[in-house]
Amino acid sequence: MDGSIMLDLDYRKAVELSKESYELEQSKRKREEETLKKIEEYEKQKENQEKENRMANENEGASMKLSQTRKWPWDEATSLQLFLVLYDQFVLKLFIKTS
After folding, report:
1. What is the DSSP string of the chain?
2. Contact of 82 with 74, CB cutoff 8 Å
3. How far apart are CA 84 and CA 41, in angstroms?
4. How many CB atoms lie within 10 A of CB 51?
5. Cα atoms in the Cβ-side hemisphere of radius 13 Å centred on 12
6. In degrees rounded to 5, what are phi and psi of residue 29?
7. For 45, which of 10, 61, 81, 98 is 20 to 30 Å away at the CA?
8. pLDDT digits (tens, 9 = 90+) for 52-99
């Protein structure tokens, strides 16, 4: 009878240990899954940030190209050149009015 009681106690201990190991394994899996989810979220955020940066750079590039294609006369003219053009126009108008 003592042998069967000992076997029963050993069996109970084994069951308890297997429950504990199962619970530990489950908690370990849960932590691993949470860690993987966090990593995936971080990677998604990083990709979204890279996309936003790329789009912002493309928008900047497009606006720079637009500003480069649109050339106004005063963009390249120096103040002396502008003065001479305006002076010539003034003299021409004055000449037309007086004649």
Report:
1. -HHHHHHHHHHHHHHHHHHHHHHHHHHHHHHHHHHHHHHHHHHHHHHHHHHHHHHHHHHHHHHHHHHHH---HHHH--HHHHHHHHHHHHHHHHHHHH-
2. yes
3. 64
4. 10
5. 6
6. -60, -40
7. 61
8. 988 888 877 666 666 666 666 656 667 777 788 888 888 888 888 887
Q: Residue 85 contacts by C-beta under 8 Å, 6 or more apart in sequence?
A: 77
**Mean pLDDT along residues 22-49:** 91
Distance CA 34, CA 29 (A): 9
Cβ-based neighbour number of residue 85 at 10 Å: 13
Q: What percent of the chain has pLDDT above 70?
A: 76
Mean pLDDT of the chain: 80
**Maximum separation of any 2 CA atoms in the chain, in Å:** 140
Kindly state the tokens that stand for 67.
């500003």
Pull the structure tokens for residue 74.
């005063």
